[in-house]
TrEMBL record, chain A:
It comes from Erythranthe guttata. Belongs to the universal ribosomal protein uL14 family. GO terms for molecular function: rRNA binding; structural constituent of ribosome. The lineage of its organism: Eukaryota, Viridiplantae, Streptophyta, Embryophyta, Tracheophyta. One of its GO terms (cellular component) is large ribosomal subunit. This is Ribosomal protein L14.
Automatic annotation (TrEMBL), chain B:
SUPFAM superfamilies: Glucocorticoid receptor-like (DNA-binding domain). GO terms for molecular function: structural constituent of ribosome. This is TRASH domain-containing protein. GO terms for biological process: ribosomal large subunit biogenesis. Keywords: Nucleus, Ribosome biogenesis. It comes from Erythranthe guttata (Yellow monkey flower). It comes from the Eukaryota.
Length: 161, 167
């Protein structure tokens, strides 16, 4: 998946060279714009995720996806390392903690056959038992969390997608 | 189960179809197929894209206000299941559909009224002004009845001319 992303970027680079040489700006730019639609994939090691609770962390990097050989999806738990944190929060930079993915840019199939996708990749930090560390959750969360028994997060959420 | 409307083209999204995209401000966009989804990702405005219902309503091609649209309003209150109510609702849906289709056909007819007259007028104007594209003005001066190529006599004359030209 990462290879396909990087290859699409290389292709973009190639096209832009041709565009400047060929002096047909509008059509080339339109094609470049179309190519910039990415294929969204799993959350794996080294994936940066946004933290959407008030536990103190701002950004977190995935160390391990606990289930799934290709990576974590919407609703899965991951092990993450805190990369950026607010001052005086419950977690600080460098902490290793568990987290549950509440928004994923990759589409997830629902049981009625449709698919959902969100705008970004976001997590809520939890402890080993599955309870959230923070006391508030921001943004929409999916109701896939109900199946995974993260009812506390659902109760804290402001909008359930 | 609920039948949603596609955000881009306003067609119904049946269960098992389409993608829903949840933006971070919790606004949900439902799309019926990847065509609409891709247009959305390209940031196209559905009111400017010719084949969408939004464009057609905005430019008066389709009906905007009608009593039949009131029946399709979204209701958030769950109804207790009653067999008779369900049966009557299904019958009513069929009738309302027929009424709506009839009204749309009428709207279309009203819109296209006067089209035949307009085409005829344009044809006459074209015959008057642009006949030089078909027949040379010199030929017209010889025989002024050459403008209307419908007469049978005309055809034989043309053929005779053509044979003379070939010779």
């Amino acid at each position: 998946m990462a290879a396909s992303n990087s290859s699409s970027k290389l292709f973009r680079g190639g096209l832009s060279n041709n565009a400047f040489a060929g002096s047909r700006p509008s059509s080339e730019l339109a094609r470049l714009d179309f190519l910039s639609q990415q294929t969204r994939t799993f959350i794996q090691m080294r994936t940066n995720l946004k933290v959407v609770d008030n536990s103190g962390a701002k950004r977190v990097m995935c160390i391990q996806a606990l289930k799934g050989d290709k990576g974590a999806r919407l609703g899965d738990t991951i092990v993450a390392s805190v990369k950026e944190a607010h001052m005086g929060g419950k977690v600080k930079k460098g902490d290793v903690c568990y987290a549950v993915v509440v928004r994923a840019a990759m589409q997830k199939g629902r049981c009625d056959g449709s698919e959902v996708k969100f705008d970004d990749n976001a997590v809520v930090l939890i402890n080993k038992q599955g309870e959230p560390i923070g006391t508030r959750v921001f943004g929409p969360v999916p109701h896939e969390l109900r199946r995974k028994k993260h009812l506390k997060i659902l109760s804290l959420a402001e909008h359930i997608a | 189960m609920r039948l949603e409307k596609c955000w881009f083209c306003s067609s119904t999204v049946y269960p098992g179809h389409g993608i829903q995209f949840v933006r971070n401000d919790a606004k949900v966009f439902r799309f019926c197929r990847s065509k609409c989804h891709k247009n959305f990702k390209m940031k196209r405005n559905p009111r400017k894209v010719k084949w969408t219902k939004a464009y057609r309503r905005l430019h008066g091609k389709d009906m905007t206000q009608d009593a039949t649209f009131e029946f399709e309003r979204k209701r958030n209150r769950p109804e207790r299941y009653d067999r008779n109510v369900t049966e009557n609702t299904l019958k009513a849906i069929k009738k309302i559909d027929k009424v709506r289709v009839d009204r749309e056909a009428r709207h279309h007819k009203e819109r296209m009224k006067g089209k035949k007259e307009q085409l005829r007028k344009e044809g006459v104007r074209e015959l008057d002004q642009s006949i030089h594209m078909i027949k040379a003005p010199a030929a017209l001066l010889e025989d002024p009845s050459l403008t209307i190529p419908k007469l049978k006599v005309k055809v034989s004359q043309d053929k005779a001319e053509a044979t003379r030209m070939e010779e």
